[in-house]
Amino acid sequence: MIESIRERRSVRSFSDDGVEEKKIEEILTAAAFSPSARALYPWSITVVENPEKREVISKATPYADFAAEAPVVFVVASKEEGEWIEDASIVAEHIQLEATNQGLGACWIQIRDHKTEDDKQSEEKIKDLLEIPEDYRVLCAIAIGHPKKQKQPHTKKELQKREIYRKKHGNKPKKQNKK
């Protein structure tokens, strides 16, 4: 698993190759294994392969234009109950990590609390497009496909340890070294 974590990069440029059905199924399986607070599992995933719908998603925020180019977009929504943001975020991360594991590229597109270029709520645009029930919230969309260019995995030099502390045997927490 650590390899998928190191290899996961935000990919915003995709080749024309489609995503194989088996890979989509593996990504959905990984998402379905996500934990959920109090076992509520309030989330839902909509797989969008239709080019016209991907085009609409690409206009859901000013930062989502690459979604039109991606052969598939996973939209993560949730009933607004329990720790729905946390549960849906874990699902989204499982999707991204399994996409990486499958040799694909992925990039998160924030939908919740964002607006379209014409100042409309991004969530409402996506809910209308995909007929997501009113009592659900849309957290994000994840564009997935074969990357046009392979990015290098993260290196240990990139680790963000400046705010990681460990407390051992009752001692005061100590800051971790950068190396």
TrEMBL record:
Residues 145-179 are annotated as: Disordered. Belongs to the nitroreductase family. Pfam families: Nitroreductase (PF00881). It comes from the Archaea. Residues 164-179 have a biased composition (Basic residues). Keywords: Flavoprotein, FMN, Oxidoreductase. Transmembrane segments: none annotated. Its cofactor is FMN. One of its GO terms (molecular function) is oxidoreductase activity. Residues 5-60 form the Nitroreductase domain. This is Nitroreductase. It comes from Methanohalarchaeum thermophilum. Gene3D superfamilies: NADH Oxidase (3.40.109.10). InterPro entries: Nitroreductase (IPR029479), Nitroreductase-like (IPR000415).
